[in-house]
Design brief:
This is histidine kinase. GO terms for molecular function: phosphorelay sensor kinase activity. It holds the Pfam family HisKA. By secondary structure, this protein is α+β, with helices and mostly antiparallel strands. Helix content is about 45%, strand content about 20%. The protein has three domains: about 1-230, no CATH class; about 245-325, Signal transduction histidine kinase, dimerisation/phosphotransfer (DHp) domain (Helix Hairpins, Orthogonal Bundle); about 335-470, Heat Shock Protein 90. The chain has helices at about 1-60, 180-230, 245-295, 305-325, 340-345, 365-385, 440-450, and strands spanning about 75-80, 85-90, 90-95, 135, 140-150, 150-165, 170-180, 335-340, 355, 360-365, 390-395, 400-405, 455-460, 465-470. Strands 1, 2, 3, 4, 5, 6 and 7 form a seven-stranded antiparallel sheet that branches. It has a five-stranded mixed sheet with strand order 9-11-12-14-13. A two-stranded antiparallel sheet has the order 8-10. Strand 1 (about 75-80) and strand 2 form a beta hairpin. Helix 4 (about 305-325) packs parallel to helix 7 and helix 6 (about 365-385) packs antiparallel against helix 7.
Length: about 475
């Protein structure tokens, strides 16, 4: 059993740890994705700002050679409409991700060169005049790539900003912002998660193990007490009930109720065996005495008395056998039984017994057991009646009712349940010669209950006892 509890603790701990692990992985993934998205957005904003600064300079006519392209070591490319690199960061050695792999600008006229140069021959790049401000287009994120600036290679997010000079030149400015901050933050967060998550899972597993052990401690107490009860066979003992008012407390309460019912059942069985032994002892002793006398003095044999004791012994054995079958849970037969005909059959040949009621009242059950009930009720009624016993068979809604009334002294209210206990005889019927062994009414009620019905006793109209057998009517 302790292995079972250990297994329960292990399974609960494993399940809790797995659930928390899945939740942590999901939450960690969401945090990393959100962090990366925010940092990439920030890098894109920085790249856009750099590209706009260069595009603004180009739009106002700044010459390529005068562009400030070396701020913050961010790679910048200026590409004309033909895809030719016309300007780039001074220390740019290699670049990917912009679609233009060139890092060395090609000779080209300055955006401010319009052919009017104050007497110069036009071969000097500085001879042109600045144009008026042109138009800057909407920025667009190109994507991620790499660039080597002054010997350092890093990852960058590139943004392209189109610009149109006053002279009509279509240029595109590519600028990148480093992703080192994004990589560093993501790697740091990932490292923290890789270190912290296992520690947190270990704490969760440890706490779950302790909590589960504490929760199962009352169950272990119940198990130990049940084992002690089994070993000692002392059904008077009870398992401890924790004061938690939870499922374990209800389990302990139910276990104690089961033990109480088992103790009561065993006690009834012991009383039954003791009473049966006592009841059997008298006819057997009487029969043995008569046979021993007859063996020594055949002329003194009381044959009628021997037969009477034998019949009584046979009936008692039959009653005990039927009670044993009922206690074993034997299901009654599902035959179609006419209670009216059965009542007339049971009353046939009995003096002072009359039967009236419906012509046919059918129920489903065992004809033999129901006949035994009617016979026992009639025997009891005749034993206490002054002169008459009346049997009434009728329908009451969906139920079939058999009422057996006598004109005797009746049954006191305090004894109306006790008379259905086994081997119980009231003082007026204690004589074994006039009464039975006290099993007839007990058998009658047990059979009624097994058939889904009830057997109760009330006051009869004539002043005696009225026994009412109520059974479910036959299903259509």
């Amino acid at each position: 059993m302790s292995r079972l509890f250990a297994s329960v603790r292990a399974r609960a701990t494993l399940a809790a740890t797995l659930v928390v692990a899945v939740a942590l992985v999901a939450a960690g993934t969401a945090v990393l994705l959100s962090l990366r998205s925010n940092l990439l957005g920030e890098a894109g904003t920085q790249a856009e700002r750099s590209a706009r600064d260069v595009a603004t300079s180009l739009a106002v006519g700044t010459r390529y050679t005068e562009l400030n392209l070396d701020d913050d070591d961010r790679p910048v490319q200026v590409v004309d409409e033909a895809g030719t690199l016309v300007a780039a960061s001074e220390d740019l050695e290699r670049i990917t991700g912009t679609g233009v792999d060139a890092v060395t600008p090609q000779p080209s006229a300055s955006p401010s060169d319009d052919g009017d140069d104050d007497g110069d021959d036009g071969d000097d790049d500085d001879s042109g005049e600045s144009l008026e401000a042109g138009e800057i287009g909407e920025p667009a994120t190109v994507g991620d790539g790499t660039a080597t600036v002054d010997g350092d290679t890093e990852d960058y997010r590139f943004v392209a900003v189109p610009v149109e000079t006053r002279g009509g030149d279509q240029l595109t400015v590519y600028a990148g912002a480093p992703l080192s901050a994004e990589h560093g933050a993501v790697n740091t967060a990932l490292t923290v998660m890789l270190i912290g998550f296992p520690l947190l899972l270990a704490v969760v597993a440890w706490v779950t193990w302790l909590v589960t052990r504490r929760a199962l401690r009352p169950v272990e107490g119940i198990r130990r007490e049940m084992a002690a009860i089994t070993a000692s066979e002392d059904l008077a003992r009870r398992v401890p009930v924790p004061g938690t008012h939870d499922e374990v407390a209800r389990l302990a309460t139910t276990t104690n109720q089961t033990l109480a019912a088992l103790e009561s059942s065993v006690e009834r069985q012991r009383r039954f065996v003791a009473d049966a032994s006592h009841e059997l002892r008298s006819p057997i002793a009487s029969l043995r005495t008569q046979l021993e006398v007859a063996a020594a003095h055949p002329e003194l044999l009381d044959l009628d008395g021997a037969v009477e004791d034998t019949v009584r012994l046979q009936r008692l054995a039959a009653d005990l056998l039927l009670l044993a079958r009922l206690d074993a849970g034997e299901r009654p037969a599902d035959a179609r039984v006419d209670l009216a005909a059965l009542a007339r059959e049971a009353a046939e040949g009995r003096t002072g017994v009359s039967v009236r009621g419906d012509a046919a009242v059918h129920v489903a059950g065992s004809r033999g057991q129901l006949g035994r009930v009617l016979a026992n009720l009639l025997d009891n009624a005749q034993r206490h009646a002054r002169s008459a016993v009346e049997v009434t068979v009728r329908r009451d809604g969906e139920a079939a009712v058999v009422a057996v009334a006598d004109d005797g002294e009746g049954v006191p209210a305090a004894d109306r349940e006790r008379i259905f206990e086994r081997f119980v005889r009231l003082d007026a019927a204690r004589s074994r010669d006039d009464g039975g062994a006290g099993l007839g009414l007990a058998i009658a009620r047990d059979v009624a209950v097994r058939h889904g019905g009830t057997l109760t006793v009330h006051d009869a109209p004539a002043g005696g006892a009225l026994f009412e057998l109520r059974l479910p009517g036959e299903r259509a």
